[in-house]
Specification:
This protein has a two-stranded antiparallel sheet with strand order 1-2. The protein has a single domain, classed as Up-down Bundle (Four Helix Bundle (Hemerythrin (Met), subunit A)), CATH 1.20.120.450. It starts with 14 loop residues before the first helix and ends with a helix. It has helices spanning about 15-30, 35-50, 55-60, 70-90, 115-135, 175-200; strands at about 150-155, 165-170. With about 200 residues, the protein is mainly α. Helix 1 crosses helix 6 (about 175-200) and helix 4 packs antiparallel against helix 6.
Length: about 200
């Protein structure tokens, strides 16, 4: 029996986290390998389309104080995706990925100095690496499939109306893990769109 999943602070999972887990479990069971890949591909394309019209100066502007700018968001996605691709490579080969997991808010220092086209290329390359892995059939025994220890973050609405993250750890098989990358891409696509709106673009 799977142990009860709680947040890293020991609190029970919020309703938003429970819904996320239900989505991952049900969709992973219902989708074919191709279905998983195409949903991840579509999310990657949506994100890259949201980034494409942004200029160098817009990428560095910080329209919301104390929040990431667009360059930092793009760097975060690229850094996360390339690590996720490595974990997925292990899962698809029937191996458990080595520790540590891909932690939330992962970034490099490149957003502060790397040219904007280079950051975009890094994002595209990381996405392509993940998608290329999903092209090949998984060499996984369904009766003994490995899992990856995965850090998940959901936004929840508190009783006072504030929105705050809840962080929790869960073990995911490769389909669930790939679908987490889809959700991650879509979440940051929305974030980039909101940043563009704040810039008046």
């Amino acid at each position: 029996m799977e142990p009860e999943i709680v947040a890293i602070d020991g609190e029970p999972l919020c309703a938003e986290a429970v819904r996320m887990l239900e989505y991952l479990r049900t969709r992973a069971a219902a989708l074919s390998d191709t279905g998983v890949r195409e949903r991840v591909r579509a999310a990657a394309q949506e994100l890259e389309s949201a980034v494409a019209p942004i200029s160098e100066s817009q990428s560095r502007a910080r329209p919301v104080a104390d929040k990431w700018n667009i360059a930092e968001v793009v760097d975060h996605i690229a850094q996360t995706q390339i690590r996720a691709a490595e974990e997925l490579r292990h899962l698809l080969a029937g191996r458990r990925p080595p520790a540590p997991p891909v932690y939330e808010a992962l970034r490099s220092g490149a957003a502060a100095w790397a040219p904007w086209p280079e950051l975009i290329e890094g994002l595209h390359s990381a996405n392509q690496e993940l998608l290329a892995l999903l092209e090949a059939p998984a060499a996984v025994d369904p009766n003994n499939a490995p899992t990856a220890r995965t850090v998940l973050v959901v936004s929840r609405t508190l009783s006072d109306g504030r929105v705050a993250p809840q962080i929790f750890l869960v073990e995911l098989g490769w389909r669930e893990y790939a679908l987490v990358q889809r959700l991650h891409l879509l979440d940051h696509r929305t974030q980039i769109k909101k940043l563009r709106e704040a810039l008046g673009k």
